[in-house]
Each structure stands twice: as C-alpha cells, then as structure tokens.
Amino acid sequence: MAAPAAAGDLRFLLVGVLVVVVVGSRLVRRADGGGIPTTLDGPFEPATRAFDRALRQGSDDVPLTDPRLAPRARPPAPEQIALAASSDATSVWVSWVTGEAQVGSHLNPLDPSTVRSEVWYSERPSPTAAAAGDVSGHYPHVARGKAEVYSQLYPYPGLLNYTSGAIHHVRLRGLKPATRYYYRCGDSSVSGGAGLSGELSFETLPSSAAAAAYPRRVAVVGDLGLTGNSTSTVEQLARNDPSLVVVVGDMTYANQYRTTGGRGVPCFSCSFPDAPLRESYQPRWDGWGRFMEPLTSRIPMMVIEGNHEIEPQGQGGAVTFASYLARFAVPSEESGSNTKFYYSFNAGGAQYSWLEKDLRKIDRRVTPWVVAAWHPPWYNSYSSHYQEFECMRQAMEGLLYQHGVDIVFSGHVHAYERMNRVFNYTLDPCGPVYITIGDGGNIEKIDIDHADDPGKCPGPGDNHPEFGGVCHLNFTSGPAKGKFCWEKQPEWSAFRESSFGHGILEVVNSTYALWTWHRNQDAYGEDSVGDQIYIVRQPDKCLLQTTRCPSLVSNSGYGAHKDIIRSGHLIWNASLAIWMILISTIFIKGNSCSRF
C-alpha cells in the first residue's frame, strides 16, 4: 500500500526506492507491486534474518592515534564543535572545547573563566577576509555563553584521573525557522583570530506555525561507540543527509575502557566481579567528539543517557554522569526543567509536554505524531537484556497507550528489531510500533542469540538492571502462557536482524511516516536498506482514552518487586514537536496504570 500524497509544503525528501517487505527470513519485492508495506498490512508473520556465524560479530575500537580522532584545531582554537536544538526553531545551542585535557595523578584543572564563549553569526557567508579575526564587521550577531570544566577522579591507587578542557555552551536566540546561518565560535579577543573556528553553517528546523512543516529526515542511532563499525554507521548516516540526529544512549563506551583493556565486555560484573568500580578512559570522549564534529557542527544532535554514561567515580562511585552532564548542551532551562536529565524541544510542531500531565494537553490536530524513546527496550526477543526493564514497562506502558503514542525507539540491545503494533504483549492495532536500534557498532559486538533459541532463554539471575528492581514475569496468556520465554519468535516481533546500522524517520503527513533501517554490512551483496515500512496512524479508529489507563498483565513471574524504576528516557511528539525527557532513577509504589 503506497503512501498518499501529502498536502502542503513538506520539507523533506522520500528516499524509499526499493520496494520491499519482510517475507520469511529475507527481504523481497512485493509480488503485487503494491509499493512499500505499511503497518496497515500487518501484523506481519515474525521473520528473522539469521546472522552468519562465519562473520565477525564486531570490530576493534579506533585508536586515538587515528587521524579522524585527532584535534581538528590547536589551542586556543575551538574543537569538538557540536550543535543541539533548543526549545523551538528560533534557538540553537552551540558547544565546543578549548584547551587541553589532562590525564594522570596530579592535575591542575583549567580556569574556564579566562576564555570567552562567543558565537558570531549571520544569514550570509562572510568573505575570506574574516578569517583574520575581524568578525564584528562581517557577522551582525553575537551570542555569549559560559564554559565549564569537569574531572573524573578515582581514590584508588593506579587509576588514571582526568580533567577536561574548557567546555563551552552558547545559546543563539531570535533565529528565523528554516533558515541557513553561518557562524564562527570561540574567543574573538585572541589576536589574529587564533581563538576562533573557521566558518561553519547550519539550517534551523521548521517552525511549528508552518503548515505541514516537518524536519526532512530524523536519523536515529543507538549504542554507537567508536569502532570500525561505528565509523561506518556515522559515515552512512551522514550520506543520508538528516536534518536532526537522535542518539538513544551509550555513546562512547569510555566508561570501562581501562578496566577491560579497551576490549569491552557484555557483562562487566560477570567478567570483573571484584573490581571496586569501572575505570573509564575519558580521552575516548574527546576522540568521539572529534570524530563526530564534521556531522555535529552542521546538524543538531540530541542525546539521551544510557548505562554507559553513568561512569561512577569517587569513593564507592558516589559521583555519576559527570562527562554527560558537562559535554552536552540541552534545552533544560528553556523547557522548564531544573536538570539536564529532563528537557524538551520543539522541532517543527505545536507544543512540548511532560508525561501524564502534559500529554493531556497535546492537540493531536496540531501535533498528530507522538514518538517516544528511551535507552532500554521494553519489547525485546534477544537473550541480551531480555525483560531487563520490565518494571519500567509495567509502570508506564498504560500511560503511553492511553495517549496514543505512535512509535517507540530504544537501544541497549546491540541488534535491530521492529515489532508489530503491540500493547501488554498482545497484538493491538492501536499499540505503538516499538523499534530497537542499538546497533550503532560499539565494542561489545552484535547480539546474535534470541531468547527463543534452544538453550538461550535467560535465567532468573540474568538481566538485572544497573539501577532499580526486577520484575521478570511469566506470560499469563497466549502461546507462551506460563513460560518466561517463547519457544519461537514472538508474534509481536515482526522482524529482527543482527547487523550494525542506523535508521531514518521521514514524516510524510499527519498519518504517514516512512521508517527505513540501513544496515552497514554488505556481505550479503544486497542493498543496504535492511527494513522499510510506512508507519500509519489511524486516529479515527484509535481514539485517545481520557479517563483511565488499560490494565497491564499481572506479574506472576519470579523475583517480582513492586518498586518500579523509571529509567532515562526521551519522549518526542512530532508535528514534529520533540520532547526529550531524561529521567533519572525514580522509585514509586504502584501505579494507576499497572496491576501487580
């Protein structure tokens, strides 16, 4: 079923040229010539593209000596330049690093107040004469911000401490939506322009006031890391020319780099049961920022934290998330939040919201699409992380279903999986489409075992979250009734494949969005489009519930706790208005939309 033509001035391009649908274990062209499949053609029979075990499951980390990870400028000039969306299309954050980081035992942190944080910008490119440092005559606008320095410190002998360069964050305001701007960042007081970057440019997102104005393409990637596979993912993602990038957690895998010898392990506590804490290697963050700069200096990148961003330090790991909190600018203050773990932004739509209270305020006539994302998946048929965040699902799934969330993105599992529309482990035409996209290419390699494979069903001692309780359950109905794992691919799992890649979401209109998953691996000799489908909303059939949440499955499994964890997650509503909500660990007793 082909997508209808969209009315109005749509600000994106459709790239779906290969007509595909999942049949059995491979992608084939539709025999009826009906075009790209849609969710209206579902639910689909579960399909798995099996991993060729003769292939390597991953690749090594790129060494910091690689030229792509080398500083792109020498102090005092800026490096690791990155953009982030602000609360709406009239504002953008610009971040960068100056000075040199230090690693060792005796460190002297830089004083960030000695360096200016400035962004000079214009709607027109400047002549080459501006390179000499005369920015005031060529850029009519300047915005100023502030800088900070963070440290990663360990009280244990032999562990390397770290203190960062000066990390600058500046917010540009009063911009025109859907407009290209040219900018230089840094410190204009340094003679000869040595403290400024070269000229870069970006295009602001469309306005919420514009009819049918959507970001052209939203790239979604998770569990990226900095391996050979990671670089392939980013290079292919950049070729797809997105207007916004969303990273659903686990960015650098610096958090246990030293302890694991730079090799990575899927289960740290299993491999290092006596380690007092994980020793990170913070220069990996600097290398990651340098590698990403050609992309992030021209396209906004929004991030959420994953478990690899925890990075405990100090006695007993009392301090966490230091790097994540310092390195990334997020629109927390402008979206009414008092912490970087809760923030929202508007990327061409009506309004942003916060969970239950503000979900009720969304006018679906103006903001038709509501998309959610967080790091750990609720629906996952792989052995890795199977039912790990079941507590979170039980606490929140009813709320999202009540308000008609359309799509959910997650990472954490290092593979790709797209679900049929589902609610409470039951096929439901009004449930969200859950997509696991944790296949960015990290050092821990691809996940290949499924919970329904013989002998691969996890036990009660497996897959415990790093924070919060355990709510593992046995299914109470359906083909897996009374069991912890299915004996075949679950009916709610439409397609799964163990390959590295990334996804692109293109909102066509108020009811159609094209989702394309691009695999990196070309060993199969086929097109890199691994999965493609139109996700179709049916607002006339799936009416929003205004009074109460549906009941969830009762927890009859082992190890059940009534304490519920809500872990870091982002929710974005698309018209395309996007809200990012990064919720730190919260424990609640019960929930109006769950039953135990």
UniProtKB/TrEMBL annotation:
It comes from the Eukaryota. Keywords: Glycoprotein, Hydrolase, Membrane, Signal, Transmembrane, Transmembrane helix. Residues 78-204 form the Purple acid phosphatase N-terminal domain. Residues 217-416 form the Calcineurin-like phosphoesterase domain. Residues 1-33 form the signal peptide. GO terms for molecular function: acid phosphatase activity; metal ion binding. Pfam families: Metallophos, Metallophos_C, Pur_ac_phosph_N. The chain crosses the membrane at residues 570-588. The keyword Cytoplasm does not apply. Residues 483-531 form the Purple acid phosphatase C-terminal domain. It is an enzyme of class 3 (hydrolase). The keyword Transmembrane applies. It catalyses: a phosphate monoester + H2O = an alcohol + phosphate. Its EC number is 3.1.3.2. Belongs to the metallophosphoesterase superfamily. Purple acid phosphatase family. This is Purple acid phosphatase. It comes from Oryza meridionalis.
